[in-house]
Amino acid sequence: MRLDKYLKVSRIIKRRTVANEACDAGRVEVNGKVARASYDVKVGDVIKVSLGSNEREYEVLEVLEHALKEDTTKMYKSL
């Protein structure tokens, strides 16, 4: 799954366009490297998102095409 879509489906970022813009601006890193929106997310990846003064890290536990609000917590773990 594309990185921008994963960020939206997992509800880490609310909108896919915002996720895409954050990737283009270099504010999203995967495994320590700046990642493009087209990066293919895999289980075990560590995603670091820097928006404003907030900087958060998540470990990918599961990749789901569609997720209900209750299922999003199973998709990642905050570090």
UniProtKB/TrEMBL annotation:
InterPro entries: RqcP (IPR025490), S4_RNA-bd (IPR002942), S4_RNA-bd_sf (IPR036986)
Source organism superkingdom: Bacteria
PROSITE patterns: S4 (PS50889)
Pfam families assigned: S4
Domain RNA-binding S4: 1-62
A GO BP annotation: rescue of stalled ribosome
Gene Ontology molecular-function annotations: ribosomal large subunit binding; rRNA binding; tRNA binding
SUPFAM superfamilies found in the cross-reference section: Alpha-L RNA-binding motif
Keyword ATP-binding: no
CDD domains the record matches: S4
The keyword Flavoprotein is annotated on this UniProt entry: no
Keywords: Protein biosynthesis, RNA-binding, rRNA-binding, Stress response, tRNA-binding
Family, per entry: Belongs to the RqcP family.
Entries under HAMAP family matching the protein: RqcP
Subunit and interaction comment: Associates with stalled 50S ribosomal subunits. Binds to RqcH, 23S rRNA and the P-site tRNA. Does not require RqcH for association with 50S subunits.
Function statement: Key component of the ribosome quality control system (RQC), a ribosome-associated complex that mediates the extraction of incompletely synthesized nascent chains from stalled ribosomes and their subsequent degradation. RqcH recruits Ala-charged tRNA, and with RqcP directs the elongation of stalled nascent chains on 50S ribosomal subunits, leading to non-templated C-terminal alanine extensions (Ala tail). The Ala tail promotes nascent chain degradation. RqcP is associated with the translocation-like movement of the peptidyl-tRNA from the A-site into the P-site.
Protein name: RQC P-site tRNA stabilizing factor
UniProt source species: Eubacterium coprostanoligenes
Phylogenetic lineage: Bacteria, Bacillati, Bacillota, Clostridia, Eubacteriales
